[in-house]
From TrEMBL:
Keywords from the named record: Membrane, Transmembrane, Transmembrane helix
Main localization (coarse): membrane
PANTHER family, alphabetized: GH08340P (PTHR11827:SF72), SOLUTE CARRIER FAMILY 12, CATION COTRANSPORTERS (PTHR11827)
Native source organism of the sequence: Candidatus Protochlamydia naegleriophila
Name assigned to this protein: Putative amino acid permease
Membrane topology of the entry: Multi-pass membrane protein
Domain SLC12A transporter C-terminal: residue ranges: 483-592
Any one of the GO CC terms: membrane
């Protein structure tokens, strides 16, 4: 793994832009992709740990590890080739691609670990150089060599950013020569009959995999070069695939060569065995130094650019985005990078750093594959890569990465994923707004489409009934707290809530409507109220309500309950009653909440409600009673209402009826496992004294449910108006009242048949 010099150009757009003013050089596949990719994969592991891996794992396990790591890397490269040929990859490389696809929160949750990984990789390469140097000059301690090397490389990165660009081909030639020297050596051919680890105390398969995997990482930075290639759609996949296959066969060949040339005991005990086996040791030393130092300096130039990209997007303090000097270097970001690398150099070793790099790389690779796979699965019109890749391949890469993480160390994997989730949640709370579109809307739309079509084909189940409230609020600027608190308490986390408002045609200014819609949604989001908002043009509020009742909804997701306030306008009463009659004929339940009554709580209040929920039994409609019981049950599921009690109240004419009604209530409660209190009152004239008794009994209640009959068939609305107007008049001095009219064809008795795991009401 390494950061190579070509990728520096992608991390330094300002420098490249200044140079391109005079001449814009386009690279081909070999120099633009293949060479830098090979240099990324021929580094510390191949020279300093591959022998140990062969000796510890045995030949067959080593070949399996190399194959599995190559497959994961290859799939990730293909995914990034598709992404890079769909958009121009900007500053930040992998972070840029993830954040522009899955959103700024997900991108940042991966971008911060990615920056940490890039910083640690500097330590990894520096420690690798220090181990090699220490073998020649043992009088110097490893930490001292590492610190001195890091200091020199940092100074070089500050002073001469073009240095790496000039030596890339030289390093490539040196590495090729060092590989020749290796295969030319090893004249003593052994026969290691044991194809298994040298001892039972050897690390596990997945532990050795974690040690090896960094050898094939870092190649994702090639995607940043897509804008500098003559033919990106050809060069990216061809160059990277060829590089991975080359590295795969070279690693396989070296593993077999070492197994046949060196005893397993020596492979395990001698970390510099490749140097000692080679024909020309000096070439191996030059190869180690060239690969590690170029990788380290590439990291010193690359990691600060990732941190700079995070700062420019507002994820970390803006101070890290500041640039200095002729080439506009992010020196503050570089200082933090060096500080993190210094910690790794002082306290780490290759054996400690490699597994940590593996875990972070697997997280990043999983997210990169996920982003590309979802893009192709969504098939958005904006997804038109010149190198298309089937989504199943990318998502397979995601699964392989997750499995590898869990197998290496399930605890560490869960902890790492937890940290990523914690970063995501923290950024979500900050409500950072990105300046670009991502595919999150497309993902939600895709799965919503899937769910809606399946719901449309499914047989409706009464046991799965949920409230779907269509709440009419009249003017957008006047939303009743009472209606809002009632509706949100019942539907929150359990159903759907749509807030519908209307405006006159002369007010149909598109910009004002959009601004008002945004304001309402922002207010609801601020108070953590989940609701849909729809603003509709209508000549009158009642005509708009009729349109919504008749046409609002999609497939099976149509409102089953209409919620609105009463009307105090005499001239508008008949039109209002037409709405109620239409709702009943359309099979919509109706709930009327008196907006003038004081609510038991503010819609966003989480303080416990004081008082009980009273359901007044409707002798004329058992369906009304069943629906009121369902609403009371769902209301009590709301955290603010949990301490309230539900009381089923009835007024009867004599003692014999009271005994019969009590028996009916007890059977209802037992059959449905409802924890409800009952109260049956006796009055000689229950119909005449009903509201007086209600007022006295329910004065301290938090919510009162009353049944309301629909217009009879053939009944004039003027006649029904007398009955309708009497309800709010007689209950005007009550606590908050909800008038309920059941019209839905759902079997509400089955709705009340709660599953035992739900517990009691």
């Amino acid at each position: 793994m390494s950061f190579t010099v070509d990728q520096i150009k992608a991390f330094q757009p300002s420098m490249v832009e200044e140079a391109s003013i005079e001449q814009k050089t386009k690279f081909g596949t070999f120099f633009g992709i293949y060479v830098p990719s090979i240099l990324m994969m021929f580094g510390v592991i191949i020279f300093l740990r591959l022998g140990w891996i062969v000796g510890s794992a045995g030949l067959y396990s080593t070949l399996t590890i190399i194959t599995l790591a190559s497959v994961i890397t290859l799939i990730t490269i293909l995914s990034m080739s598709a992404a890079a040929t769909n958009i121009k990859v900007g500053k930040g490389g992998a972070y840029y691609m993830i954040s522009r696809a899955l959103g700024i929160e997900v991108g940042s949750a991966i971008g911060l670990p990615l920056f940490l990984k890039q910083s640690i990789s500097i330590s990894f390469c520096t420690v690798g150089f220090a181990e090699s140097f220490h073998s020649l000059y043992p009088q110097f301690s490893l930490p001292a060599i590492g610190v001195a090397t890091l200091a020199v490389l940092t100074l070089l990165a500050y002073v001469s950013t073009n240095f790496a660009l000039k030596i890339q081909m030289a390093i490539f030639v040196i590495i090729i020569a060092s590989l020749y020297s290796l295969f030319a050596g090893g004249s003593e051919m052994l026969e290691n009959y044991s194809y298994t680890p040298v001892s039972d105390s050897s690390p596990s398969f997945w532990g050795i995999f974690a040690m090896f995997f960094p050898a094939l990482t870092g190649i994702e930075s090639s995607a940043s070069l897509s804008g500098d290639l003559k033919n990106p759609s050809r060069s990216l996949p061809l160059g990277t695939i060829t590089a991975v296959l080359t590295a795969y066969f070279v690693y396989m060949a070296i593993s077999i060569f070492l197994f046949q040339s060196v005893s397993l005991e020596r492979l395990v005990s001698d970390p510099l065995v490749i140097q000692h086996v080679a024909k020309f040791e000096s070439l191996i030393i030059l190869g180690i130094w060239g690969a590690t130092l170029s990788s380290a300096i590439g990291g010193l130039l690359g990691a600060p650019r990732t941190l700079q990209a995070l700062a420019e997007d507002g994820i970390v303090p803006k101070v890290f985005a500041k640039e200095y000097g002729t080439y506009r270097e992010p020196r503050i970001a570089t200082a933090l990078t060096v500080a993190l690398a210094l910690i790794g150099v002082c306290f780490g070793s290759i054996n400690v750093i490699a597994p940590l790099l593996t875990m972070i790389c697997l997280i990043c690779y999983a997210m990169l594959n996920l982003a590309t796979g979802l893009e192709d699965l969504m098939a958005n019109p904006s997804w038109r890569p010149t190198f298309p890749l089937p989504w199943i391949i990318s998502l397979t890469g995601t699964v392989l990465c997750v499995i590898a993480m869990l197998m290496i160390n399930s605890g560490a994997a869960i902890l790492a994923l937890g940290m990523v989730l914690a970063i995501y949640m923290a950024l979500k709370r900050q409500r950072i707004h990105s300046k670009w579109d991502d595919i999150r809307y497309g993902i939600l739309a895709f799965f919503s489409r899937f769910a809606i079509y399946r719901l449309a084909c499914a047989v409706p189940s009464s046991r799965s009934w949920r409230p779907h409230f269509l709440v009419f609020t009249g003017k957008p600027s006047s939303v009743s707290d009472h209606i809002l608190s009632f509706s949100t308490a019942i539907t929150q986390t359990k159903g759907f809530l749509t807030m519908a408002s209307f405006f006159a045609p002369e007010q149909a200014n598109h910009e004002q409507i959009a601004e008002l819609d945004h304001t309402i949604k922002t207010l609801l989001k601020h108070h953590k109220i989940e609701a849909l908002v729809t603003l509709n043009q209508a000549k009158t509020v009642t005509s708009g309500m009729k349109q919504m009742i008749a046409h609002y909804g999609i497939g099976p997701l149509t409102p089953n309950t209409i919620v609105c306030g009463g009307t105090s306008q005499e001239e508008n009463l008949i039109n209002y009653l037409e709405v109620i009659r239409l709702a009943h004929r359309r099979g919509r339940n109706v709930v009327i909440v008196n907006e003038e009554q004081k609510s038991s709580q503010h819609p966003t209040s989480r303080s416990p409600i004081k008082g009980d929920i009273h359901i007044w039994w409707d002798d004329h409609s058992q369906r009304n009673c069943e629906l009121m019981t369902v609403f009371a049950y769902m209301l009590r599921k709301n955290p603010a209402w949990r301490r309230t009690r539900i009381c089923l109240v009835s007024v009867v004419s004599d003692e014999s009826v009271r005994v019969q009604r009590l028996q009916e209530f007890q059977e209802l409660i037992k059959r449905n496992r409802l924890k409800i209190e009952t109260s049956i009152l006796v009055s000689p004239n229950p119909e005449q004294e009903r509201f007086g008794i209600m007022k006295s009994f329910s004065m301290d209640a938090a919510m009162v449910f009353l049944g309301m009959r629909p217009p009879f068939e053939g009944e004039l609305l003027e006649e029904y108006a007398t009955y309708f107007q009497s309800l709010p008049q007689k209950s005007a001095e009550f606590p908050p009242v909800a008038l309920v009219m059941s019209a839905e064809q759902t079997n509400l008795q089955e709705v009340l048949q709660l599953d035992p795991i739900d517990g009691e009401l």
